[in-house]
Amino acid sequence: MSAPLIWIGLPLMLAVFLLLLPRERLVTALGTVSALLLTGIAYWLPPDTTQRLGSLSLRIEPSLTLLGRQITLDAGDQTLLMLVYGTAAFWFFGTFAVGQARQIVALGMAIIALLMASLAVRPFLYSALFIQVAVLMSVPLLASAKIKEKAHGSAAQPSVRGLLRFLISQTLGMPFILLAGFLLSGIEAGPADVAQVIQASLLLLLGFAFLLAVFPLNTWLPLLAEETSPYTVGFLLTMLSTFGLVLALNFIDRFSWLRNSTQLPTVLQFIGILTLVTAGVWAAFQRHLARIAAYGLLAEIGVSLLAISLPDRQIGLQILFSLLLPRTLALGIWTMSINILQTQTGDLRFAAVQGLVRRYPLATAGVIFSNLSLAGTPLLAAFPFRQTLWERLALQSFPLAFWFGIASLGLWLIALRTLAVLTMSPDNVEWNSQETWPQRILLSIGLLALFLLGSFPQLAQPVLTSLPTMFEFLGK
Amino acid sequence: MFVILSLSILLLTLLVMAVLRLTRRPAAFSWLAAALGALLSWASTPLWQIDLPTRLPVSSWPFSTLFHTTPALQADSFSWLYAISLVALASAVVLTSPARLAVLSPISWFGAVALGLVGLLAVMADNILTLSLMWMAIDLLEYLNTLRMTRSSSNSERAVISLAFRAAGTGFALWAAVISARTGLPTSLQQTPPEAWLFLLLAVGLRLGVIPLHLPYRQDLALRRGIGSSLRLTAAATSLVVLARLPAGDVDETIRIFLLALVALAAIYAAWKWFSSSDEISARPYWIIGMSALSLAAALRGNPQGSAAWGVSLVLFGGLLFLYSSRQIWLTRLLAGFLLCLLSLPFTLTASGWLGNFPWPALFWPLFLTAHVMLIAGYIRHLSRSGDTPLSELPRWSQVSYPLGLATLMITVLLTGLWGWPGSLQIGNWSVALLMVGLTIPIGIAYWKLNRFLPTPEEQSTLAQVSHFVRFQEFLARLLWAIYRLFRRLVEYVSSLLEGDGGLLWTLLLLLILITALRGL
User: Fold this and answer.
1) Any domain includes B482
2) Three-state secondary structure along A151-209?
3) Secondary structure of B169-200 in the HEC alphabet?
4) Which residues share a beta bridge with A52?
5) What are the pLDDT digits (tens) for A38-95?
6) How far apart are CA A145 and CA A22, in angstroms?
7) Residue A185: which residues within 8 A CB-CB, separation 6 or more?
8) Which of B155, B165, B174 to mutate against chain A (most A CBs within 10 Å)?
9) Is the pLDDT at A259 greater than 50, yes or no?
10) B383 with B262, same domain?
11) Are residues B414 and B509 in the same domain?
């Protein structure tokens, strides 16, 4: 059996099967167990490695040829496979608390498989196509999770502006990356034609700017978050941004002139800090819980770009990958909590969610602590890595560190503002939790994990130390 | 490792209390567990002296190349001093609580013990990172406790504002860590560079817990006396402990004089407000500001022992007064006698308080000594008012536990004056001590004699007006809120442009500007 069949083919088939299942809980259970199984297989039977089981010798072939193209997942991809399917299991499990299992689990499984294929396909140029298919697959996922706004007491038609812009933005990214790949294929070893290199770089930059939703190409994200189920958006965009970043790193790793370019760190730094600061400052003035979470995600994209831009690539990659787990955890809990509040109020504007803490204490805690975690608050999951990134940015440039601080301040401010709104209950209201048991259990586990990772980041070490080695040059 | 013993006792106590709560045992069991655990932990703290200084085996963070700093805990004589006072406070809060609470509150005892535990860890923090972690833990404990107790939306909002100020303090500490990292120096607090020192000072100031002055749950006196005192004093102590560790001698002379002038003003203002307030609980923020100012002034004089002495006095003497709700004449006289230990007399806790000299002695000595006198005068005044309940009216077991709780604080005052840290068994600046005795005794006598002519606290509270400082704070808050709303309108306008029908065009324009800017890099 080949690795692409196990980690790409099987999930695709499973996605179709899950779509046909009648009961939501069954879909969640099956999806979660399957994702965990795929994680387990990646751990115990990594691709292209022979494992002995008594007299039995097991080996998973790394490659599969499809329509003349090769899809390869080798031993270097082991940690990524574990991380991706482990993360998927986390998000799928969350549907126990928020519902929408059929969309998130079934379509989500297919999207993850396609994104995995985008990293595995050779020639590399075809990655953009797989990403585009994944984006198209996410349209029904997002459309099915649309919120019908209650306007003046009657149900109005849901807005689709955010969804359309998401589709346009992600689709526009594809031709840029394809064109850049086409131009770059001629100059893999070294830049012969300077003009061609500049053109390719610009196209690549634009392609990834669209794909990663950096400033100013990210106006669709808050809109989408406002219009659609927050948990669905959280899941989809966490996955898309993670794969987008890994794909960008693959490009940097592959072309030596790009890898060794002196301008690249400066450009990444500029775009990164711009994205981070605009997201942090914009977040500070929002009055809609889902929009705040969207800006939190945008800020994380900026943080990732800043980590890649560090002069010490090894350290940069370690920070980047170390932040993946806290980010997924925080966004998962954040959007799950918002979803729970939305089910109750139907509206996520501050005026509608005011004083919900006494009826939804854990969901409130989920919203606040996740937000604080992504703001780099001590004791919470992202803190150790954000703080070290901040310190390393200060070593490079003081203004850069200052702006990083301003962005974090914006996220802190809005967390405290949200806290003030959610805790302003009418006088003498008793504590009476209305969360369901699955919601309580999932949120409690998630919050505990946020604190545990913040105090003991070494818990994530086994998963994350080997991730940078998936890159041939950057990781060494 | 006796440090671990004390920590383990507190941790075990918390676990036992949690189990008792889950198994729905009567509240009295929880009280007994909390009291025993806190007392045992307090009794074990002197044993730390056997192996001081010592580093605690904290599991360090991974990826040694990645982190400039990882958490580190070190117990030295200063941390011992603060630790014993914090555990004494926790014991006193638990032991005296039956006298205050008509309904027993296991959660407040749990909170007191938990605060004791986190407080111990915080005073042992060896670098800014560890300090920030512990500060945040204390802030969360305080906030959750406040949220649980408040029943009105205005109090909830104030609790968030209070948390925001504390968080801002932690933010400044993190910024100080960033500045320290830039210098590439080792990360210990003792080696903090002067540039970072100032930000840490700001962090300490914001974290004293006195802003905003309109505190939450002010209506519930019993809780404010008990867990409220524990929260306020622990937060202040875990901030002030930093001052004893910082290399204040490295601060530029001009900045030092400027800071001393500011601190002197704060000390005078707070001491006057403390003296003139109607009751000790409302005046508690002023006690904290006043004593912290003395602590800070000592640190700025390059006198870490003095700084620690004032910091610990804030906790111990503050604890004695704020927990003294069930009064009795002999107990009041005993506490008044204990005030001698606050006069910087030789061989007392505060003996080292006035060591070292100020840069402009003719200006600063009178200012700070006046503040000191007013703080003591205020203490005498608040001590002499009638309490909430007479001691004789308490149940018999409470009549035993209540004085025992106060005794833990009194014993700690005596012990720390005589043993265990560099400021103990000191003669100190005896001329200042004599001056203080000379000023305090007449004030005390005058107060006793004139007491009947002064308005009662009840009369005062009806006459009391909101102070200018509070009004200024409220004005500042309104101003900040107006600026915030102004910016929000701006952001919402830009968002509506970018997300509206013409948004794509605006985005493209911004993209072009960005590409042009990138070409210039």
Assistant:
1) no
2) ECCEECCCCCHHHHHHHHHHHHHHHHHHHHHHHHHHHCCCCCCHHHHHHHHHHHHHHHH
3) HHHHHHHHHHHHHHHCCCCEHHHCCHHHHHHH
4) A57
5) 999 998 888 888 877 777 788 888 888 888 888 888 888 888 899 899 999 999 999 9
6) 18
7) A123, A125
8) B174
9) yes
10) yes
11) no
Span between the terminal Cα atoms of chain B, in Å: 57
Which of A203, A116, A52, A183 is CA-nearest to residue A470? A116
B359 and B507 in a single domain? The answer is no
Q: Which of A47, A75, A73 is nearest to A59 (CA)?
A: A47
Cα separation, B381 vs B513, in Å, equals 68
Residue B58 contacts residue B72 (beta carbons within 8 Å)? yes
Judged by a CB distance cut-off of 8 A, whether residue B178 touches chain A is yes
Alpha carbons B368 and B248: distance in angstroms, whole number? 19
- The continuous run of DSSP H or E covering A66 comes out as strand A63-66
CB contact under 8 A, A425 and B156: yes
* Global confidence as pTM: 0.90
Cβ atoms of A125 and A178 closer than 8 Å: yes
Query: Which pLDDT tens digit goes with each residue over A323-334?
Result: 999 999 999 999
Q: Which residues of chain B does A355 touch, with a Cβ-Cβ cutoff of 8 Å?
A: 153
Q: How far apart are CA B115 and CA B119, in angstroms?
A: 6
Using a CB–CB cutoff of 8 Å, tell me whether A33 touches chain B: no
Kindly state whether residue B471 falls inside one of the protein's structural domains: no
* Residue B114 confidence (pLDDT) above 80: yes
Which residue, among A124, A122, A256, has the nearest Cα to A188 in the 3D structure?
A: A256
Residue A280: both structure tokens together = 């942090």
pLDDT range class, residue A280, cuts 50, 70, 90 = very high
What pLDDT score was predicted for residue B448? 66
Q: Are A105 and A18 in contact (CB under 8 A)?
A: yes
Kindly state whether residues B189 and B286 are assigned to the same domain: yes
Tally A–B CB contacts below 8 A.
137
**Interface ipTM:** 0.89
Strand partners, A288: A349
Same domain, B454 and B499: no
All residues at 6 or more sequence positions from A23 whose CB lies less than 8 Å from its CB, including other chains = none
| CA distances, B69 to each of A385, B64, B128 (Å) | 11, 9, 9
Residue A433, SS3 per DSSP: coil
Domain match, B58 and B95 both = yes
Greatest alpha-carbon span in chain A = 75
Residues 6+ apart with CB under 8 A from A99: A24
Range(s) of the domain holding residue B508 = 488-519
Rounded mean pLDDT of A12-27?
A: 90
Structure tokens at A360: 């939804």
Would you call B499 an interface residue with chain A, using a CB distance cutoff of 8 Å? yes
- Do residues B373 and B493 share a domain? no
Three-class SS of B323-365 = CCCEECHHHHHHHHHHHHHHCCCCCCCCHHHHCCCCCCHHHHH
Is B473 among the domain residues? no
Across B214-227, average pLDDT: 58
Q: What is the mean pLDDT of residues B30-36?
A: 94
Q: Tell me whether residues B67 and A388 touch, CB distance under 8 A.
A: yes
> Which pLDDT value is given to residue B217?
46
Most confident of the ranges A55-59, A390-394, B430-434, B506-510: A390-394
Give the pLDDT confidence score for residue A154 in this predicted structure.
47
Q: How far is B125 from chain A (nearest CA, A)?
A: 14
pLDDT for the residue A447: 95
Q: Are residues B425 and B510 in the same domain?
A: no
Secondary element (H or E) of residue A122: strand A121-122
Kindly state whether B498 is in contact with chain A, defined as any CB-CB distance less than 8 angstroms.
Answer: yes
Q: Is A314 on the interface with B (CB under 8 A)?
A: yes
B35 in any annotated domain = yes
Q: What is the pLDDT, as a whole number, of residue B64?
A: 61
**What is the nearest CA distance from A417 to chain B, expressed in angstroms?**
8
DSSP code, position A7: I
